[in-house]
Amino acid sequence: MKKKISLKGRLKLYMMWPLYMCLLLLPAVVSMYFFNEMAGYIMTGVFVVYIVIAIILFCGLRKKVLRSIVNFAMDYDDVQRKLINEFELPYALLDGQGNMLWMNDRMRDLFNMSVISDKNIMTYLPEIKKEAFQVEENRTEIEACYADKDYRVVFEKINIEHLEGIENLIGTVEHESYLYAVYLFDETTINWYKKENYEQQMVAGLIYIDNYDEALESVESVRRSLLEALIDRKINKYISGMDGISRKLEKDKYLIVMKRKYLDMLKEDKFSILDEVKTVNIGNEIAVTLSIGIGIDKDKYLTACEHARVAIDLALGRGGDQAVIKEGENIRYFGGKSKQVEKNTRVKARVKAHALRELFENNDKVIIMGHKIGDADSFGSAIGIYRAAKSMGKRSHIVVNEITTSVRPMIEGFINNPEYDADMFLNVNEAVNTVDDATVVVVVDVNRPSYTECPELLKLSQSIVVLDHHRQSSEIIENAVLSYIEPYASSASEMVAEILQYIGDNIKMRPAEADAMYAGIVIDTNNFVDKTGVRTFEAAAFLRRNGADVSRVRKMFRDDVNEYKARAEIVQNAEVFSEHFVISECNSEKLESPTVVAAQAANELLNINGVKASFVLTMFNNTVYISARSIDEVNVQIIMEQLGGGGHMSIAGAQLTGVTIEEGKDLLKGIVKRMLEEGDI
Q1: Can you tell me the mean pLDDT for 390-397?
Q2: Quick one: 450 exposed, middle or buried, by C-beta within 10 A (0-12, 13-18, 19+)?
Q3: Which of 44, 250, 539, 656 is the most exposed place for a label (fewest CB within 10 A)?
Q4: CA 22 to centroid of chain Cα atoms
């Protein structure tokens, strides 16, 4: 049965309103007969004429109106198709696999296609993956590049079920419920402006000469001005080559300003100025080294300068001869491969000792803590600070939460000893309850808050002192009122021994205390082999004069038979990788302190000919501990920093959570391999 085309809706109402008016006029015509019969006849005649004209107009115009509407609809459809085809924005319809079902002229011109093709869009834009057609969102955006132009590709889902009759038009969809409309927005120009804006940002930096005085003293006086001039020339030439400005602030300090795009060149160059300045040699016995701090902030130059100051402090705190870049919370390190040179002057130690004395005098209590899983050095340095505080009549406590095998031989000489207070040692809970506003918290042998024995103490005390010999990382104790960090020192016990010589004249150490500090130096220097300088032996001599006994210290650290066997097993199972690196694992079963055994074994592995660095991993308390050791050819600290750890150039470590030992090995090997390829080690 055929259906006629008819008017509907508002258009029908609009066309028929004259006929509806007849219903309103009819009562008016009838009422006229009640007033005047002649007027009623006249109104009746007018009414009849109106009805005839309305019917003629409705019937005569209806077909013309319908014809015009149909013609308009057809013309509108053609215009719409033409607009889409000639739309300036590349546009296409895809099926669920990315095959192009339809595209407009701009899309065909872009892909140089003369006719519509069923090729997959991923053929032209490889940045688009199959996953883009599997997301639940109705709109997805992807960045892509084609023909040297950048595009923002926008996908929009189209539900086929909502499109009547679509199944008769696209049978190749194979019952998929969605089509995808894709638009390509050319963002080449805006990306170019973004890049320009990024590259034109100004960065501030500071350059310090680490060993300015020492280098000048090692050369003849008549050549000192020449050495200064050569260093200035090297720095100025290097910075000007990056279109930057360098200005000398003091004899050994420079301010630099440059565009950010050249900073990326410095990163790729790995700050070659660090090595270039070492080639300056006019008879000076000590090579000149630099520390560089770069600060970045896209909004404020003042903040960038502040970041530069923090970065240079980090570079100096890590031993110098390196560059540090700080942008917000992100920090990157470059260089730091050379060995720190010990400073013969003790001026800094004397100044820090006097400052520490003032802090003790202005407070009532002193709480000392080292790092978690304490060792001989953290315990020995804590004992030294304890003696200094007690000599001033202050209540003093040492936080020891867990007694390890490396500490037990020393701590037994203090526990239940009538010469010492019963509350000399506190656990974490007792320490938290003891601290108050008149308490000084002294942190020894560690400068990372998360590694301390009780991080909560750092939040409870207003007076915090940090004494450490490890290189600083981006994680630091920020609210310390006194910080004394010297990476060149062999141990924290050595630093405390120097402080004790200046902090007061009436300090008398007891033999057990001197033994503990001497043991800390012996263990951290591997029996005076590693990182040992003139001041190390002077500190050891001071402790010997105060009663330290070498034989007693040696007896304290004789090995348990199980530990000795475990160490031998570690060496036996060691695996060589990348030619000069050794890795092994320590079985923590039957060992009270496997981390100590792992560190000892790592030292043993360095005795193998050709080994540049050794790594021993052990699982302890659901955490993988890595002990890294080297002699002088490899900086193991920067390797451990890649794993979130740190330490010294030759002694470092890291802790990994949520991984197995095998996964830790693979991760470590991958990092070493990458750093070797990039020339970082």
Answers
A1: 92
A2: exposed
A3: 250
A4: 83
